[in-house]
Design a protein that fits this description.
The chain is an alpha/beta fold. 40% of the residues lie in helices and 17% in strands. The protein contains 15 helices and 16 strands. Strands 4-3-2-5-1-6-7-8 form an 8-stranded mixed β-sheet, with helices on both faces. A 6-stranded mixed β-sheet has the order 10-11-15-12-13-14, with helices on both faces. Helix 3 packs antiparallel against helix 10, helix 7 runs parallel beside helix 8 and helix 14 crosses helix 15. The radius of gyration is 21 Å and the shape is globular. One of its GO terms (molecular function) is tetrahydrofolylpolyglutamate synthase activity. Pathway: Cofactor biosynthesis; tetrahydrofolate biosynthesis; 7,8-dihydrofolate from 2-amino-4-hydroxy-6-hydroxymethyl-7,8-dihydropteridine diphosphate and 4-aminobenzoate: step 2/2; Cofactor biosynthesis; tetrahydrofolylpolyglutamate biosynthesis.
């Protein structure tokens, strides 16, 4: 087994997240022990239920196009954990990740700290960006904000893209409580950009208490990527006080999207919509761009998602739904089918693997000239893509795809 595979195995054996953390004491201790790595570069901190990955990428690409050395930290990943950490669109190498992880393992052992997978990955990114001397890093939160491992930053700008119900066991049962948790990333006098679905009283109150200038996007859009672009555009306007940004670079960056965000490949669409709000905006985009096409869905959801509500939204517009299961992180097809118990059994098919479900969907869709939509968990996308394009080797580097419709 290679050093990288050994390291990855050790990382993946740690819990993905901590059970409802009450403080940031662990990460603050590690931050001190590492001599505050993020103090060596400027940071932009991005939170929100949906859209934060796309907004983060657009901002990072605009800065990169203007000649800056830019770190980008996002989650989760589709192909490899290495995707989460990149500089100027190049992901961290296996060797660099092994070296950084070994250092973290040693420091944590000395400090007797038990970190989660996300906490390890966060500090891998922070240390890597410090070592490689980036000018600026765009950092996406993992979950919430106030108690997120990334919230040791002292950013020059904060962004909250949207607020909707997700991770209620961690963040609270209503939108204002969730907004309060997201608002925890605000820092005294640091400007904050709010998306049109992030304008909540608890955020405004917190911003006022901390004397944070507030810039908000008020317009609503037909296509969610247009909304993300407008949020990123407003953020980049704020950043013009710290960076020299050309309008050409901004325009080039705003048309890009990360992989599997309404990614159109012929008659197949890949989208990581995995909560009710994201599914709603995916369906809105499908209706907007493909109003006359019949839609066949391949879906799989992680266990912590509200898959019942997602399926409730998908069912009225689908010709057929292919339910798939895979890793232990995913809901079983038995549970998914129970959420469709009121639908006729001919309306959905349960598959024991992602490969089986995708092949079946593609076959039926091809014969009937339907559009296939693969959506849900990040963790079904790699296998789904490999089935769709077995010959194509997907580049792990961050290669933002422009909007294109066929």
């Amino acid at each position: 087994m290679s050093n990288y595979k050994k390291m990855l195995k050790q990382l993946l054996e740690t819990p993905l997240l901590k059970e409802k953390p009450s403080t940031l004491e662990n990460v603050q201790s590690l931050n001190r022990a590492l001599s505050y790595p993020t103090s060596t570069y400027s940071t932009i901190h991005v939170a929100g239920t949906n859209g934060k990955g796309s907004v983060s990428m657009k901002i990072a690409k605009a800065l990169e196009y203007c000649g800056y050395r830019v770190g980008l930290y996002t989650s989760p990943h589709i192909h490899s954990p290495r995707e989460r950490i990149c500089i100027n669109s190049e992901i961290i190498s296996e060797e660099e990740m092994v070296c950084g992880a070994e250092k973290l393992f040693n420091v944590c052992q000395k400090l007797e700290l038990n970190l989660s997978f996300f906490e390890y990955m966060t500090f891998l990114a922070f240390e890597f960006f410090c070592e490689k001397r980036v000018d600026v890093a765009v950092i996406e939160t993992g979950l919430g904000g106030r108690l997120d491992a990334t919230n040791i930053l002292c950013p020059i700008l904060t962004i909250i893209t949207s607020i909707s119900k997700e991770h209620i066991q961690f963040l609270g049962q209503n939108l204002e409580k969730i907004a309060f948790e997201k608002a925890g990333i605000l820092k005294p006098k640091v400007p904050v950009v709010l998306g049109p679905r992030a304008r909540f009283q608890s955020i405004y109150k917190h911003a006022c208490a901390l004397h944070c200038p507030v810039c908000y996007v008020s317009k609503f859009f037909h296509f969610f990527d247009e909304e993300n672009s407008e949020i990123a555009k407003n953020a980049l306007e704020q950043l013009k006080t710290d960076f020299i940004l050309s309008q050409k670079a901004i325009n080039q960056a705003l048309i890009l999207r990360p992989s599997c965000r309404f990614e159109i490949c012929g008659d197949i669409i890949f989208d990581v919509a995995h909560n009710p709000e994201a599914i709603f905006y995916l369906l809105q985009a499908l209706h907007y761009f493909f109003p006359k096409r019949s839609l066949r869905f391949v879906v799989g959801f992680s266990k912590d998602k509200d898959y019942e509500s997602c399926l409730e939204l998908i069912a009225p517009v689908a010709i057929h739904i292919h339910l798939v299961q895979g890793s232990s992180r995913l809901v079983s097809t038995n549970e998914l089918s129970f959420a469709l118990k009121d639908a006729p059994s001919s309306f959905y098919t349960c598959h024991q693997s992602i490969e089986e479900g995708v092949k079946a969907a593609f076959s039926f869709a091809f014969q009937a000239n339907e559009l296939t939509v693969v959506c849900g968990s990040f963790y079904i996308m790699q296998e789904a893509k490999s089935v769709a394009y077995p010959i194509k080797a997907f580049d792990l580097n961050m290669q933002g795809a422009p909007i294109a419709f066929s």
